[in-house]
Design a protein that fits this description.
It is a single chain. The protein is an alpha/beta fold and 359 residues long. It has 2 domains: 3-103 and 309-345, Rossmann fold; 105-293, NAD(P)-binding Rossmann-like Domain (Rossmann fold). 31% of the residues lie in helices and 13% in strands. The chain is built from 13 helices and 12 strands. It has helices at residues 13-18, 38-44, 63-66, 87-93, 105-122, 124-132, 166-175, 191-196, 204-210, 230-235, 253-261, 312-324, 338-345, and strands at residues 3-6, 22-25, 50-53, 74-77, 96-98, 158-162, 181-185, 200-201, 213-216, 241-244, 267-270, 291-293. The strands form 2 sheets. The chain has a 7-stranded parallel sheet with strand order 8-7-6-9-10-11-12, with helices on both faces. A 5-stranded parallel sheet has the order 2-1-3-4-5, with helices on both faces. Helix 5 packs across helix 7. The radius of gyration is 23 Å and the shape is elongated. The protein starts with a strand and ends in a 14-residue tail after the last helix.
């Protein structure tokens, strides 16, 4: 009986049970900060053929957990992010890491980004607070126009998008009707993508120097960790705003706090933090209206249907079943591990009958 360790909430376990898998379910408290859960997780991962789950940043999948079972074939995530997994160790061990690259929450992240832009530009929070405190109009909390105005020659804001993937591209689509200037930096996509989204391709320094809003939409890896730090913040306009809805580690929070304290930039909207939940002692909590802080994604639901992660849990189950059958699944993140994985597990099935998974 193949063993699947479900380390955090993930899909319908009945699909894997029907395929003859033994399921070991993790604890909800592993999702909370504090404590060392690695020993218990390593124990439950012993002899596992697969790991599967949702985001688990407070109890990441470490090398010790990955090496708890010599039979481990796959770590399947129901979400897009894999920064809670030691991907380098998995690759070295010949273990595949899969994710859900089009889980439905990406649209919510793009819309949240637009909301942050408008909240800063229109000073929504400040004007609301003024009225609730008994005031009315104050000249120091005026908003400004986002879109261009032909009547007086105002050209609108310049928006800089770092990472023109699924989310960054959607932000560009949502902002194009405002008739603004949109710059984008992404060295990993073909030129036609910039044309498709109606943005101008520039280098990162140009984007930082010329943008009124800089929004980050990248995965977290060695290349992108602290890609926005002291030097980058110093290039930005003093009137500019930074938005990070990607991963906390892409922005150096200490450098950001320092820049905000000395008015190096005008403000920042942060939806993801280097440590989550954001620590009580974080200086970002004391920045007042200079910052908008939200709790990483906060899944939104369509008005007419159940929201959430969409197909992510289904794809994770499919990926596990493929791997248990000795087949390379779709959505492999660490593709460089495939060759070694094929040597270890290719064509070697540990289950008898393929389960059909339906959405």
């Amino acid at each position: 009986m193949p063993k699947v360790f479900v380390f955090s909430r993930a899909g319908d376990p009945n699909v894997l049970k029907q395929a003859g898998c033994e399921l070991v379910i993790g604890k909800e408290e592993w999702l909370l900060p504090g404590g060392n859960n690695e020993p218990e997780m390593s124990r439950l991962a012993q002899n596992a053929h697969a790991l599967m789950g949702h985001s688990i940043r407070n109890s990441p999948i470490t090398r010790n957990i990955l090496t708890a079972s010599p039979e481990l074939r796959i770590v399947a995530k129901t979400t897009v992010g894999v920064d809670d997994i030691d991907v380098d160790a998995a690759t070295e061990l010949g273990i595949l890491v899969t994710h859900a690259p089009v889980e439905s929450n990406w649209g919510n992240v793009a819309e949240n980004t637009v909301a942050y832009i408008l909240a800063f530009a229109k000073r929504v929070r400040e004007r609301d607070a003024e009225i609730k405190s008994g005031g009315w109009r104050r000249s120091d909390i005026r908003g400004f126009y986002v879109g261009s105005r032909g009547s007086d020659g105002y050209e609108g804001i310049t928006l800089g998008i770092i990472g023109l993937g699924r989310i960054g591209g959607r932000v560009a689509q949502l902002m194009r009707p405002w008739n603004i200037r949109i710059l984008a930096y992404d060295p990993h996509i073909p030129d036609y993508r910039f044309l498709e989204f109606g943005v101008k391709a520039v280098d990162k320094e140009t984007l930082l120097r010329e943008s009124d809003f800089v929004t980050v939409h990248v995965v977290l890896n060695r290349e992108t960790r602290h890609m926005i730090s002291t030097n980058e913040l110093a290039i930005m306009k003093r009137t500019a705003f930074l938005i990070n809805t990607a991963r906390g580690g892409t922005v150096d929070e200490a450098a950001l706090a320092h820049a905000l304290e000395r008015d190096g930039i005008a403000g920042a909207a942060i939806d993801c933090f280097e440590v989550e939940p954001v620590p009580q002692e974080s200086p970002l909590r004391r920045m007042g209206d200079k910052v908008i802080l939200t709790p990483h994604g906060g899944l939104s639901m369509p008005r007419t249907a159940e929201g959430g992660l969409g197909g992510g849990p289904v794809w994770a189950s499919e990926s596990v079943l493929d791997a248990l059958h000795g087949k390379v699944p779709d959505h492999v993140f660490n593709t460089e591990a495939i060759a070694l994985w094929q040597q270890r597990f290719g064509g070697k099935s540990v289950i008898e009958e393929r389960a059909r998974v339906t959405v």
